[in-house]
Amino acid sequence: MGQFFAKHRKTFEALIFLALFFAIFIPLGYRMGLKNMLNTIMQTSYHLLLETCFFLMAICVMSGALGKLLVEFGVVRLLEKVLRPLMKPVFNLPGVAALGAVLTFLSDNPAIIALAKDKSFRRYFKKYQLVSLTNFGTAFGMGLIVIAFMAGQGFGAGAGIGLFGAVCGCIVSTRLMQRFTLKAYPEYDSPVEEDEAPVEEEKDNKKEEKQSTFIRALNSILDGGKTGVDLGLAIVPGVLIISTAVMMMTFGAKGDSGEYIGVAYEGVPLLPWAADKINFVFDWLFGFKFPQLVAFPITALGAVGAALGLIPEFIANGFIDNNAIAVCTAIGMCWSGFLSTHTAMLDSLGYRHLISKAIGAHTIGGLVAGIVAHFAWMLISLF
Question: How far is CA 128 from the centre of its chain?
């Protein structure tokens, strides 16, 4: 029997896929009407492209330019030196890890891996600390974009509290990952590069810059903006595909009489129906007054850019306040689409066997981030 399944594995995969595909779209088509369902898919993705993706791309371009300027003129290195004393007592990481936090905050999760594969950077770490960089870096990934987006919607205070919650979630996720790793592999309490000779600190300005300050600034702005365009384009598929799918399971009919008319942001509210059954949990933990808000953390598991695409519609429906923004910022920034990046990040470092531990630790960290943000906002609201 086992040989039979192995021989026809591709056939069974195709049948299972078709079964799941029809199990999702037949009920949606039956409830909404096939024509309305198809129109809603196209209209929702089109509106998301115009109203959310281009806005996110603009933020990516501006933050990319700012980030490149900060790197070019040494501000990132200065921030790293300022934050270095906090790394060991707070995150149990070497001081140089602060550089990874700053770079991922200005860009995205994979920036930490580019550093972690650099021998002059790796030599400061023990093995269990190195693998925890996936959790540490992810919790700051796209942080500037998330905060700028939330502030741009008029909720700067909530975004600030969300940043605090994300840092708390990062502490929990990073230290849990270290604990899980050491418990399973005690031998990882050893330097990453035991036989590597110390690398001397790279001298700044080894070659005297012949370009003027103005030209350096101009080149940095243009190069950083170009990187922002690439990042903005990269998040478009996730926003359009994932957000459209989630929205079609979050919002209901838009017709005046409650009928489906095939416009953007219609759907069958399956997620709110399911969340409403246990909404007292989300209300107590996160202060979510509307079950529809659960769609944000679910989407953030796969892509925080896609999760941000939900916010304008939440605002239009009156679901959002500063508490919800604080929680969504904290969870969105901390999780930052880690389900779609953790596997590739750990695989590139050569620690694929630790993927389940990293995902487990980061799931807990993201939940802690949201809870901390909620109760921090409640505390601030008292004053």
Answer: 23
pTM for the model: 0.77
Sole residue written with tokens 């922002």: 228
Mean pLDDT by 10 residues, the chain (383 residues): 73 92 92 94 91 80 79 78 87 86 80 73 87 91 90 93 96 96 93 54 48 87 84 79 85 89 91 84 90 90 85 92 95 86 77 90 96 96 86
Q: Tell me which residue has tokens 């905050």.
A: 105
Q: Are 310 and 299 in contact (CB under 8 A)?
A: yes
Residues forming a β-bridge with 126: 191
Dihedral sign (CA 339, 340, 341, 342)? positive
Residue with the two structure tokens 């929990």? 172
Q: How far apart are CA 307 and CA 332, in angstroms?
A: 7
Which residue in this structure is represented by tokens 């300050």?
213
The DSSP annotation for 156-221 comes to: HHHHHHHHHHHHHHHHHHHHHHHHHHHHH-GGGSSBSSTTPPPPPPPPTTSS---S-HHHHHHHHH
Residue 178's pLDDT is: 96
What pLDDT does residue 207 have? 43
Looking at residue 354, what DSSP letter applies? G
- CA nearest 184: which of 361, 364, 365, 343? 361
The residue with tokens 């600030």 is 160
* Tokens describing residue 264: 């953007």
